[in-house]
């Protein structure tokens, strides 16, 4: 979904005087430098896991009371 969204944004930028997303992509070295760019999907997939673990720990704590 993100790939399609950015494809549309880049097409729209062709009609603008300044290409902000292109400049941002260049600033993060086209995603080649992991210190400057981390794919959003990696972060997005980690968030639910963190909450599942936290909820699991809370459930265990409640059951042990």
Characterization of this structure:
The chain is mainly alpha-helical and 65 residues long. It has one domain. It has three helices and no strands. The model has no long low-confidence stretch (mean pLDDT 90).
Entry keywords:
65 residues; mainly alpha; 3 helices; 68% helix
Concise account of the structure shown:
By secondary structure, this protein is mainly α. It has helices spanning 2-13, 20-27, 40-63. The protein has 3 helices and no strands.
Helix % is: 55-70%
Mean pLDDT: 90
Which structural class do the helices and strands define?
mainly alpha
- H/E order of the elements? HHH
Largest sheet: none
Q: Write down how many β-strands occur, each being a DSSP E stretch of 2 or more residues.
A: 0
Number of helices: 3
- What is the strand content? under 5%
Present the secondary structure layout.
Layout: H1 2-13, H2 20-27, H3 40-63
């Amino acid at each position: 979904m993100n790939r399609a969204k950015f494809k549309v944004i880049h097409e729209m930028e062709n009609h603008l005087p300044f290409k902000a997303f292109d400049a941002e992509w260049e600033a993060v070295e086209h995603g080649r430098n992991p210190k400057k760019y981390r794919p959003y999907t990696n972060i997005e997939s980690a968030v639910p896991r963190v909450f599942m673990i936290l909820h699991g720990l809370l459930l265990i704590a409640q059951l042990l009371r």
